[in-house]
């Protein structure tokens, strides 16, 4: 019996992470998608958030560490070839307060990346821990 592909381009978006993330992580890997995890536990400002994202996604050394560079990089990922992408923002509870108004900028960039990948036939799913204001991943 064949396991259906977990992700499709239609799934692309930014979501609140589900409680049972470990089983989801395994299923995503089995589907050929890349699981990228940005641990934001120590991120207290924009620079630290961008640094954690760069590390998680393996951005090239030329990454400019600003919002424009993030937008460009998450819409490239050529150095991270995969059938789709799941980016988990773990330990993110304090990040909205740390970023203030720029939290919405981050979410907008990630949402635009999801749309970009969706139109190219690949899933780009962002799962944010402790984000009650985001729709739940189902």
Description:
With 138 residues, the chain is α/β, with parallel strands linked by helices. It has a single domain, classed as Barnase, Chain D (2-Layer Sandwich). It contains 5 helices and 4 strands; from the N terminus they run E-H-E-H-H-E-H-H-E. It has helices spanning 21-30, 46-57, 67-74, 95-99, 102-119; strands at 13-16, 34-39, 84-90, 123-128. Strands 1-4-3-2 form a 4-stranded parallel β-sheet, sandwiched between helices. Helix 3 (67-74) packs parallel to helix 5 (102-119).
- How much of the residues is beta strand, in percent? 15-25%
End-to-end gap: 23 Å
Helix share, percent: 25-40%
Give the strand tally: 4
The largest sheet has its strands arranged as 1-4-3-2
Shape: globular
Low-confidence stretches: none
The major pleated sheet works out as: 4 strands, parallel
Quick one: CATH superfamily? Answer: Barstar-like
Q: Please give the CATH architecture.
A: 2-Layer Sandwich
Secondary-structure element order, as H and E? Answer: EHEHHEHHE
CATH classification class: Alpha Beta
């Amino acid at each position: 019996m064949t396991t259906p592909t977990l992700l499709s381009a239609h799934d692309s978006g930014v979501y609140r992470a589900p409680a049972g993330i470990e089983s989801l992580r395994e299923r995503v890997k089995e589907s050929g998608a890349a699981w990228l995890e940005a641990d934001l536990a120590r991120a207290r400002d924009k620079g630290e958030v961008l640094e954690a994202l760069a590390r998680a996604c393996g951005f090239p050394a030329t990454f400019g560490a600003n919002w424009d560079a993030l937008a460009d990089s998450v819409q490239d990922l050529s150095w991270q070839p995969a059938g789709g992408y799941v980016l988990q923002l773990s330990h993110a509870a304090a990040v909205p307060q740390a970023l203030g108004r720029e939290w919405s900028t981050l979410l907008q960039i990630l949402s635009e990346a999801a749309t970009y990948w969706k139109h190219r036939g690949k899933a780009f799913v962002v799962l944010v821990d402790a984000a009650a204001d985001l729709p739940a991943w189902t």
